[in-house]
Each structure stands twice: as structure tokens, then as C-alpha cells.
Amino acid sequence: MTKIADLRSQTTDQLSDELLKLKKEQFNLRFQAATGQMEKTHRVGEVRKDIARISTLLREQRAAS
């Protein structure tokens, strides 16, 4: 889980890269769940919330500029 304070100190490019990485992880987790290979089921919720946090920060930064 990512702390919001850590995310706020990152640039827009860094946040976009992190968002892309999390979306890929989310896809892989969904694929694992569909094939019955998932071990860390709690990670799905964590990734979803991290994606939401980063999306919110990116939206805030766009509104501020």
C-alpha cells in the first residue's frame, strides 16, 4: 500500500509511470484469479485503492495547473 504523502512528492511523470505499472499488475491479478492461480487475494483491493489514489492526485495536479 502506498502512502499518500509519498505520492504527493512525486512528479506527474512518476505518478503516470506508477499508474501504468499498477494497471498491469491489476490485469495480471485478474488473469490469475480467472485461472485459479491467485495466492495473494488481498492484493487485488490494495492495487485498486492505489490506482484510485494516484488517479485522484493526477486529477488534482491537472486542476491546479
Automatic annotation (TrEMBL):
<dbReference type="InterPro" id="IPR001854">
    <property type="entry name" value="Ribosomal_uL29"/>
</dbReference>
<dbReference type="GO" id="GO:0003735">
    <property type="term" value="F:structural constituent of ribosome"/>
</dbReference>
<keyword id="KW-0687">Ribonucleoprotein</keyword>
<comment type="similarity">
    <text>Belongs to the universal ribosomal protein uL29 family.</text>
</comment>
<dbReference type="InterPro" id="IPR018254">
    <property type="entry name" value="Ribosomal_uL29_CS"/>
</dbReference>
<keyword id="KW-0689">Ribosomal protein</keyword>
<dbReference type="InterPro" id="IPR050063">
    <property type="entry name" value="Ribosomal_protein_uL29"/>
</dbReference>
<dbReference type="Pfam" id="PF00831">
    <property type="entry name" value="Ribosomal_L29"/>
</dbReference>
<dbReference type="InterPro" id="IPR036049">
    <property type="entry name" value="Ribosomal_uL29_sf"/>
</dbReference>
<protein>
    <recommendedName>
        <fullName>Large ribosomal subunit protein uL29</fullName>
    </recommendedName>
</protein>
<dbReference type="GO" id="GO:0022625">
    <property type="term" value="C:cytosolic large ribosomal subunit"/>
</dbReference>
<dbReference type="GO" id="GO:0006412">
    <property type="term" value="P:translation"/>
</dbReference>
